[in-house]
Amino acid sequence: MIILIGGEKGGTGKTTLATTLAALRALAGRDVLLIDTDIQGSASDWAQQRGDSGARRVACVQKFGKGLQAEVLDLAGRYQDIVIDAGGRDSVELRAALVVAGRAYIPVQPSQFDLWTLDRMDGLVGAAQGFNPGLEARMVLCRASTHPSVGDRRDATALMADFPHLALSPAAIHDRAAYRKAAREGLCVEELRPKDAKAAEETLALYQEAFRE
Which residues are in the CobQ/CobB/MinD/ParA nucleotide binding domain (predicted)? Predict the structure, then answer.
């Protein structure tokens, strides 16, 4: 399975989701590769930190440019699963990844500035589906409020009707300190149990959805 985590807006939690999914897949005993296409290299830094921590290794490589599509397809023959972390912009790498991915997740924070980018992402996904008709694309709400009275998910659900090529993931990632702690240590929140069980449960829900048969 090739999973893409990407979008046009930076700072939405893409690397957190990509590293989390890759770590959970490795913990499940799968041979997974994390591909970092962001020049900032945050996913690569996380993988290096993870290797130093002694946690189960996650292989990570950086790939850029127009050849990404062919390289991903080649690597897919060597690994059981691939998770791609695409940078927060409309890039050659993002467009190439959309053409080869089986599923794409677009992290969006519950703010109008983030939600405005969905119109452009819907267009990119629609264009990619012309070449990759099996592509499934979902928006996943990230850094949502943990306060029950805040209607982040309700507002996102109402908005999705405007985007024919995108669906709303049933999983949601809330604004929790556990994610920052895990990232610093090269871990995923699942590895912080039992203390950070709420964060672990919501990432496990996303993992089960992304890698469903």
Answer: 3-77
Strand partners, 74: none
Extract the tokens encoding 20. 């989390």
Q: Which structure tokens are listed for 145?
A: 């409020």
Residue 61 three-state SS: strand
Query: What is the helix (H) or strand (E) element at residue 6, kind and residue range?
Result: strand 2-7
Enumerate residues 6+ apart whose C-beta is below 8 A from 54.
Answer: none
Burial 28-61 (b: 16+ CB within 10 A, else e): eeeebbbbbbbeebbbbbbbebbeeeebeebbbe
Domains of the chain: 2-208 (3.40.50.300)
One-letter identity of residue 17: L
Residue 110: enclosing H or E segment and its boundaries? none
Global pTM value: 0.90
Q: 194: pLDDT confidence band, cut at 50, 70 and 90?
A: confident
